[in-house]
Amino acid sequence: DAKTTQPTSMDCAEGRAANLPCNHSTISGNEYVYWYRQIHSQGPQYIIHGLKNNETNEMASLIITEDRKSSTLILPHATLRDTAVYYCIVSPRDTGTASKLTFGTGTRLQVTL
Amino acid sequence: DSGVTQTPKHLITATGQRVTLRCSPRSGDLSVYWYQQSLDQGLQFLIQYYNGEERAKGNILERFSAQQFPDLHSELNLSSLELGDSALYFCASSVESLPSVQYFGAGTRLSVL
C-alpha cells in the first residue's frame, strides 16, 4: 500500500473551513484515497473516499490533485466536535473481499473557539 | 452509532490470563476486522474474517486467535497475557463491495495488571 504523509497537527477556528492535506506521491492507479477520523479514544469513523474526482458528502469534501499525488480533506464549517485525529489512507480498489486499513500517525486537528 | 457492537467495554485482568473479546458486525456485513491500538504502536490491523473464513492477517501474535461464527459475530481470544497487551481493541465490519469502507465499534479497553 502507498505511504501517506500528513502534518502532525493543525489548528482551526470554529466556523472556519479546515483543510487537511495529505501526500501520497507513490499512489498507484488502482488505489483509492480514504479518510477516517478518531475522536479521543472512540472507534475510527469513516469520512469519505475517492479515486481521482473530487467528492463531497454530508461530512466533508475531498479534493484530489490531477496527478493524484496529494489530496485535501475539507471540513467546510469546523465545530468543536470535529476535534480529532484525521487519518489519510490509500488502499487498493481491487481487494476482492480482503482488505486492511494501514493507519499512519494522522493529523491532530484542534478546533478552537 | 456505527452499528458494530463490542463487548465488554472494559476488561481488567492479570498477566498470564486469557480473555475473549466479542464483536457483532453491522447487519448484513460479512467481513469482520480486528485492530489493536496501543500508545506506542498506533492502530494496527490484526486479522480479517469474511463469512467465517480467515481472509487477511496482520501482525497478530501467536498467543492471539480469532474466529467468526455462522451468525457472523466474531471473537478475539488473547491468551498468556502480558503487560504489553494492554490496549484498545477495535472491531470493524464492511460490506463485500467496499472492503476499505469499514465501520468501527466503540472498542474494548484491555488492562493487563
Properties at a glance:
A: mainly beta, five-stranded mixed sheet, 0% helix, B: 113 residues, mainly beta, seven-stranded mixed sheet, four-stranded antiparallel sheet
**Main sheet strand line-up of chain A:** 1-9-8-3-4
The profile of the biggest β sheet of chain A is: 5 strands, mixed
**Unreliable runs of chain A:** none
Shape of chain B: globular
Can you give me a brief rundown of this structure?
The complex is a heterodimer of chains A (113) and B (113). Chain A has 113 residues and is mainly β.
Helix/strand layout:
The complex is a heterodimer of chains A (113) and B (113).
Chain A: E1 9-13, E2 18-23, E3 31-38, E4 45-50, E5 55-56, E6 61-64, E7 70-75, E8 84-92, E9 107-112
Parallel strand pairs in A: 1-9
Antiparallel strand pairs in A: 2-7, 3-4, 3-8, 5-6, 6-7, 8-9
Chain B: E1 5-7, E2 10-13, E3 19-24, E4 31-38, E5 42-50, E6 53-57, E7 64-68, E8 74-78, E9 87-94, E10 103-104, E11 108-112
Describe this structure in words.
The complex is a heterodimer of chains A (113) and B (113). Chain A has no helices and nine strands. With 113 residues, chain A is mainly beta. Chain A has a five-stranded mixed beta sheet with strand order 1-9-8-3-4, with no helix packed on it. In chain A, strands 2-7-6-5 form a four-stranded antiparallel beta sheet, with no helix packed on it. In chain A, a hairpin with a 5-residue loop joins β6 and β7. Chain A is globular, with a radius of gyration of 13 Å. The N and C termini of chain A lie far apart (38 Å). With 113 residues, chain B is mostly beta strands. Helix content of chain B is 0%, strand content 53%. Chain B is built from no helices and eleven strands. In chain B, the strands form two sheets. In chain B, strands 2, 4, 5, 6, 9, 10 and 11 form a seven-stranded mixed beta sheet that branches. Chain B has a four-stranded antiparallel beta sheet with strand order 1-3-8-7, with no helix packed on it. Chain B is globular. Chain B starts with a strand and ends with a strand. The mean pLDDT of chain B is 94. Chains A and B meet through β3, β4 and β8 of A and β4, β5, β9 and β10 of B.
